[in-house]
């Protein structure tokens, strides 16, 4: 007979209140809140790990019917970061890592936004990537931060977003704070109607 204090006897069989709805497909997520006037956005990401951007032409995508706006580093200048502002929102001049955002496309449908992202012309001049800690610590290692440009963030970050000229512009402020790894992902879907904004939130649990 096993000892009552044996850890192997511990049973964690806690029912989840959301399990039935998730299994039956009844749970509604933020992506399900899209209304008829909601735009869909797709990020265009770098396909190389280290390079100089010699050309970024969004004209072919911007002229596609149903594409409302495209934002690049020209629309979000400056450096950002938590604690230390050391990176741009969109890659400017150089690519620092594979998958770094180059632009965001807003279109009437998700499929159209994806097609528009593929229509953007991007040309690179390859640069040797830094792949190890030893290489990054070498005296002659290239810096991914412009000299003298990184600054400390001591005030709340402010972000402005212009969805489309003449349609809507808004500004939101949030304090700078570190987020632990166990924090649940949170997404939101703001809706505007009759001059009133409703923001629906969903959090993974």
TrEMBL record:
Residues 147-205 are annotated as: Disordered. Residues 195-205 have a biased composition (Polar residues). Residues 24-128 form the Aldehyde oxidase/xanthine dehydrogenase a/b hammerhead domain. Keywords: Molybdenum, Oxidoreductase. The keyword Signal does not apply. Gene3D superfamilies: Aldehyde oxidase/xanthine dehydrogenase, a/b hammerhead, Aldehyde oxidase/xanthine dehydrogenase, molybdopterin binding domain. InterPro entries: Ald_Oxase/Xan_DH_a/b, Ald_Oxase/Xan_DH_a/b_sf, Ald_Oxase/xanthine_DH-like. It comes from the Bacteria. This is Aldehyde oxidase/xanthine dehydrogenase a/b hammerhead domain-containing protein. It comes from Sulfitobacter porphyrae.
